[in-house]
Amino acid sequence: MTTLEHRGRWFWESFDPTSRSAGADLAAIRKGANKAPGDVPGMWQHYRVVVPNPSQQNLEPHPALSAEHATLVIFSLHQQSQNTRMHKSGMTLGKALHQLKKADKFSEDAVDRRVNRMATAGDVTELIEHLRHLISQLRTVAQPLDYNQLVQDLHDWHRPEQRPRIRRAWGSQYYLWSGAKATSDSDAPEQDADGAADSNP
């Protein structure tokens, strides 16, 4: 695993939800959804990653830039309409999704299915698509996430040999393989997570 080199603090680390520019910055970044890295000029100022061999402009976007681009878009969706910053160090993806599952907002089985589809994604595009639905649900319950770890995971997912390691990490966090026992939960409303995600603004 190669740690991503970047300049200064990531956007999500320094983002202030109370600043005057917060809404405009998030709106500019959301325009990057389904766009290639670098295609949205409004996002340029928010990129922090150091891209090796930037002169190779005829090639596909570097995985480091692709990972940051996707993470910025996901963060902008997560942060929308939130009064507190949705980046929280140490709250890895598996842990955050475990909290979502136990939040009594969606059917646990439906969350399990969505997490399963994400974890078995065959490529980065498919992974991000499933992840965006889950992020919409995390936003619904105001559950923060460690975006420093997420950008690293998305970067490493570009290398197929790294995916088993990432899946194991997500699984151990989501299903509490560490040995900690989940507390008993009251019956959650039988609301399908897939449909609920589609209804979010």
From TrEMBL:
Residues 181-201 are annotated as: Disordered. Pfam families: CRISPR_Cse2 (PF09485). InterPro entries: CRISPR-assoc_prot_Cse2, Cse2_sf. NCBIfam families: casB_cse2. Gene3D superfamilies: CRISPR-associated protein Cse2. It comes from the Bacteria. This is Type I-E CRISPR-associated protein Cse2/CasB. CDD domains: Cse2_I-E.
